Every structure is written in structure tokens, then in C-alpha cells.
């Protein structure tokens, strides 16, 4: 009996280690992938802060919306990313990888838009306007 219980403990221990290794690998792939994705060629558009919310396990977030092509997108960013809290309706540049056609947009909190921009290209700018 003790041999069987020792074998079961060993099998369970191996399963636990494999599970933990899998979780660590997923975290590394997500973290590295998230950093590398914004090294791809980017397009830029304009996004607007539309609301705030407080997730249960992290700090306050600003929700922003932007459009590329005929598709509307939404994203969020931590309010701690801003030098000063944005007002609802404030606009900022949003960067997104060209190959994703608008998905995975990242609001650039240091690039608030103060001037009126007359038109935005439907697929965004190839570089951030000056």
C-alpha cells in the first residue's frame, strides 16, 4: 500500500509542477509578446476618454474609444499613466500595429491633442502628426 501511495504522490507532484510551469510559460509569452507587438510598424489615430471605472483588483482605469476604418474600438489605460487626470472627452493619440487594422490600440497618455484636427485618415496616419 505504501508503494501505491508514494507513486500517486509522485504523479500528483509532477502534475503540479507541469501546471505551474505552464502558467509561468503563458505569463512569459504574454508579457514578451505584449512588449514586442508595439515594435511592429504602427499607425496612429485619435482616441477619446469616455468613462472611468475601478476594477476589483487594480487601480482606476480610463476607458477610451477610437475608430479605424469603419470599426469602433475600445480600450482601457490606468489613470496612474497620466501626469494629470484626463477629463471625459479629452483626446489623445492612439497607436496600433498596422497588421492588426485597429485592434490592440494603445492610448498614448503623453500625447494629449490640444488643437483641433480637421480630418483623420480612415486607416490612421503612418506616423504621429506633429
Automatic annotation (TrEMBL):
Membrane-spanning ranges: 20-38
UniProt keyword annotation of Membrane present: yes
Keyword Transmembrane attributed: yes
Keyword terms: Membrane, Transmembrane, Transmembrane helix
Entry superkingdom: Bacteria
Protein name: Uncharacterized protein
Organism: Roseivirga pacifica
Amino acid at each position: 500500500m505504501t508503494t501505491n501511495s508514494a507513486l500517486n504522490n509522485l504523479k500528483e507532484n509532477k502534475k503540479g509542477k507541469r501546471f505551474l510551469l505552464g502558467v509561468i510559460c503563458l505569463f512569459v509569452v504574454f508579457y514578451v509578446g505584449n512588449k514586442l507587438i508595439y515594435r511592429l510598424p504602427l499607425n496612429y489615430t485619435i482616441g477619446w476618454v469616455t468613462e472611468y471605472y475601478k476594477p476589483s483588483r487594480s487601480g482606476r482605469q480610463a476607458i477610451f474609444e477610437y475608430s479605424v476604418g469603419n470599426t469602433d474600438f475600445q480600450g482601457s489605460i490606468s489613470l496612474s499613466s497620466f501626469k494629470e487626470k484626463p477629463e471625459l472627452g479629452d483626446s489623445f493619440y492612439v497607436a496600433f500595429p498596422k497588421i492588426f487594422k485597429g485592434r490592440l490600440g494603445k492610448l498614448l497618455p503623453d500625447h494629449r491633442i490640444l488643437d483641433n484636427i480637421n480630418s483623420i485618415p480612415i486607416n490612421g496616419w503612418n506616423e504621429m502628426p506633429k
